[in-house]
Amino acid sequence: MTSLAYAVHVSPMQPLASAALPPRPDSGPMLWSPLSTTIVYGPREAVLVDPGLTTEQGAAVAKWAAGFGRTITGIYVTHAHGDHWYATGPVREQFPDVQVWATAETVAEMARTTPGGQPNPFWTAAFPGLIGDTPLIAQAVPEDGLEVDGQSLVPHAAGHTDTEHTTFLHVPSLDLVVSGDVIYNQVHQYLSEAGEHGIQSWLRAIDAVAAINPTTVVAGHKNPDRGDQASIIGDTRDYLHAAAEAFAEATSRREYFETMVRRFPAWLNPGIAWLTAVGRWAE
Ligand SMILES: [Zn+2]
């Protein structure tokens, strides 16, 4: 049987424009989290997952992917958030023949959040001049699924996690889950869109990953110094339980932010806890 392999490219943290958000209470930097792009490859073919956000990130991903010397047949997008797919254009400049796939529900969500093929205003305010046009070229995953050199890659709908209609990609022959934002790897988790029931939905999605019992989980946002061990499934769950408590008890942005930073001191990018707080409390 043909065996597959995988590798991960992590786009580094990226500063947000200072006008995009109120300053952090501890005066720390506002950064976007490190973003994982995964390549799953066989002897001849490869598929990329989540090509990144900025034009520069996409060019770096394309250069990295070309180094594997495989035919890149497609790009799979795990969910509609722009940080995971707006760099599709620069990647396709290097690989013009690639298909772009997402689940039908995710494609609809991508269309809803990029009217007219323009990036959502949140992203252009946060990263002015750094993001190209975002024409929607993703198609629904074909009914017979995705393959690399005859080995299957299986998308799983995960519902609401850090946004609507998210998914993760299971690669059975590698015992691998490429999790998108269903699982994080010790990076503060984005919960601005959680509403009343978002955390419960996200916990169910985590259970769905755990039920597969993967050996390896590549998180959409990972600390680049850490490996891809499956213990991050439990870490992501712990963070959500803590966030649910903080949502119930905190009375201000600042209180939520300080609680989460105190409880998860080793996790990267507290700025995302602040982004969550700003989305959740008026002040
Ligand atoms: Zn993300």
Which key features would you list for this structure?
about 280 residues; 6-stranded mixed β-sheet; 5-stranded mixed β-sheet; 13 strands; globular; binds zinc ion
Give the structure's gist in a few sentences:
The chain is α/β, with parallel strands linked by helices and 283 residues long. The chain has helices at 55-66, 88-94, 104-113, 121-126, 198-212, 232-249, 253-263, 271-280; strands at residues 5-11, 14-15, 31-32, 35-41, 45-49, 71-76, 99-102, 139-140, 146-148, 151-159, 166-171, 176-178, 216-218.
Description of the molecule:
With 283 residues, the chain is of the alpha/beta class. It has one domain (5-280): Ribonuclease Z/Hydroxyacylglutathione hydrolase-like (Metallo-beta-lactamase, Chain A, 4-Layer Sandwich), CATH 3.60.15. 31% of the residues lie in helices and 21% in strands. The chain has 8 helices and 13 strands. Strand 10 and strand 11 (166-171) form a beta hairpin. The radius of gyration is 18 Å and the shape is globular. Bound molecules: zinc ion. Zinc ion binds at residues 81, 83-84, 181, 220-221.
| Count of the separate structural domains | 1
**CATH topology term:** Metallo-beta-lactamase, Chain A
CATH C-level class is Alpha Beta
Which ligands occur here? zinc ion
Poorly predicted spans: none
Shape: globular
Mean pLDDT: 95
Q: Which CATH architecture is right?
A: 4-Layer Sandwich
Helix content: 25-40%
Number of strands: 13
Distance between the amino and carboxyl termini = 57 Å
Biggest sheet overview: 6 strands, mixed
The ordered string of helix (H) and strand (E) elements is EEEEEHEHEHHEEEEEHEHHH
> SS-based structural class?
alpha/beta
Number of helices: 8
Strand content: 15-25%
- Strand order within the widest sheet? 1-4-5-6-7-8
